[in-house]
């Protein structure tokens, strides 16, 4: 067993490191407490970088996954100070909500389809899966840690960051094949395998994962169920930097821009939403007017049974939209929705005196950008509206609110949601204001 130890500051830690080379099993880490003496040194060197890979609980949707990315990007950005490392962007695919059958395959999609990679790289050292496979030169990951919550964790009042390998609480998606390697779900790549798979009970912030890597010689380390790790700090300036770096790919921005111009009389120049090309140059302000339309994110489908009290009927939504449109003196509403066509048409019937629009992609756009890209185009259009109202607890709505915070809309035109039919005066979303 060989562990790479970089020059250590004191003789004591050198001894500790040598001891570990004899006692550590394959890909074991230092221990529960990564601040233990001898556990604070990087385990890979400049010439031998580490690759951090991750995946998320399969049923989670696109916009919750974006949040998990931010936790991991902040973790790896901080880790970079200790060792040479990269965050491998998990290819998109097989999401529960992506149900269109006329858009071609919806798996193994690179991040560049949806996001601007140079912008992401201005925040954290990220790479696409194909770049990783080329650079790493192997299809065999060293180790997969399947994160899980500690049993009974929520019952104890003590908040202590900790982790340890424990028996798996639930069956995971990896199994050993005849050659001893683990096969399973690796973002749809059939040839990727892993040498080891462990369940890791974890409680803490994403950056606490650093402890798992201490004195670990494994170079390709995957964290599955990365959503178990929490944000280091929710809503601070670093959080918002990570968020601001998530600019959409230029193709999607252009498509949304054409729709705004053609149907909504909206351009960045007239709306006051011209942004610096480089997100690091953005400044705080909250005086943006936006285009002459209102946007509603009308989440349907699984939310109808998941949150029946807070999601209005189509009639109830139309009634609320009318009130807003009258107050705003607007005649056009753009609707971002996962509703079937019949529901959208019903909404139009309730609002006949208004122009009620939704985005209708061409076949080429659908094939190119797929369900994920169409949803982003709708989010971009909503982000530029004069007034936005979303759906209770939808991360799709939250991401629009964040985008509007970044662009500088007044909060009262952003942090709104539709109320359920039976809700008298419903509570409005928390105002998570941007911090620079
Ligand atoms: O994005 P998301 O995590 O938001 O998942 P929620 C919802 C998905 O449904 C989106 C589609 O990523 C889209 O694929 N979708 C939702 C939409 N609204 C629209 C829309 O207005 N237009 C278009 N084109 N597509 C959570 C899920 O959804 O809901 C969780 O993340 C779980 O996994 C929970 O299912 C109940 O936060 O709305």
Could you give a short description of this structure?
With 436 residues, this protein is α/β, with parallel strands linked by helices. 32% of the residues lie in helices and 16% in strands. The strands form 3 sheets. The protein has a 7-stranded mixed β-sheet.
The CATH architecture of the largest domain would be 3-Layer(aba) Sandwich
Overall mean pLDDT: 90
Distance from N terminus to C terminus (CA atoms, Å) equals 46 Å
Percentage of helical residues?
25-40%
How many helix segments?
A: 13
CATH structural fold name of the largest domain: Rossmann fold
Total E-strand runs: 13
Alpha-beta classification? alpha/beta
Biggest sheet strand line-up: 3-2-1-9-4-8-5
Low-confidence stretches: 1-26, 30-40
Ligand identities:
guanosine-5'-diphosphate-beta-L-fucopyranose
The proportion of strand residues reads: 15-25%
- CATH hierarchy class name of the largest domain: Alpha Beta
Number of domains: 2
As a whole number of angstroms, the C-alpha radius of gyration is 24 Å
Order of helices and strands: HEHEHEHEEEEEHEHHHEHHEHEHEH
């Amino acid at each position: 067993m060989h562990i790479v130890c970089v020059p250590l500051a004191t003789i004591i830690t050198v001894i500790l490191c040598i001891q570990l080379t004899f006692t550590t099993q394959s890909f074991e880490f230092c221990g529960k407490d990564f601040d233990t003496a001898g556990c604070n040194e990087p385990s890979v060197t400049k010439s031998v970088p580490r690759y951090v890979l991750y995946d998320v609980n399969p049923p989670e949707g696109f916009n919750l996954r974006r949040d998990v990315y931010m936790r991991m990007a902040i973790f790896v950005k901080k880790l970079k100070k200790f060792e040479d490392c990269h965050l491998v962007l998990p290819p998109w695919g097989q999401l529960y909500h992506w149900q269109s059958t006329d858009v071609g395959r919806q798996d193994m999609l690179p991040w560049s389809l949806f996001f601007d990679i140079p912008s992401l790289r201005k925040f954290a050292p990220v790479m696409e899966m194909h770049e990783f496979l080329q650079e790493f030169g192997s299809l065999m990951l060293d180790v997969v840690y399947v994160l899980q919550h500690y049993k009974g964790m929520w019952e104890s009042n003590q908040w202590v960051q900790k982790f340890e390998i424990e028996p798996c609480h639930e069956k995971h998606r990896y199994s050993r094949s005849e050659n001893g390697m683990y096969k399973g779900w690796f973002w749809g790549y059939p040839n990727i395998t892993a040498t080891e798979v462990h369940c890791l009970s974890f409680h803490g912030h994403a950056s606490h994962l650093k402890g798992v890597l201490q004195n670990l010689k494994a170079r390709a380390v995957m964290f599955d169920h990365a959503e178990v790790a929490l944000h280091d700090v929710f809503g601070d300036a670093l959080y918002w930097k990570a968020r601001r770096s998530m600019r959409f790919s230029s193709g999607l921005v252009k498509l949304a821009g054409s729709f705004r111009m053609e149907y909504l009389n909206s351009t960045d120049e007239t709306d006051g939403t011209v942004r610096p090309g480089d997100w690091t140059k953005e400044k705080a302000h909250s005086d943006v007017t936006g285009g002459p339309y209102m946007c509603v994110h009308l989440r349907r489908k699984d939310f109808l049974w998941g949150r029946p009290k807070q999601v209005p009927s189509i009639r109830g939504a139309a009634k609320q939209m009318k009130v807003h449109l009258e107050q705003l003196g607007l005649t056009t509403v753009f609707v971002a929705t996962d509703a079937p066509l019949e529901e959208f048409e019903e909404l139009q019937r309730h609002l006949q005196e208004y122009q009620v629009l939704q985005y209708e992609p061409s076949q080429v756009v659908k094939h190119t950008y797929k369900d994920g890209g169409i949803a982003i185009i709708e989010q971009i259009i909503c982000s530029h509206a004069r007034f936005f109202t979303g759906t209770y607890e939808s991360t799709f709505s939250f991401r629009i609110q964040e985008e509007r915070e970044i662009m500088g809309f007044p909060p009262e035109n952003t942090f709104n949601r539709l109320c359920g039919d039976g809700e008298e005066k419903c509570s409005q979303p928390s105002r998570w204001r941007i911090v620079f």
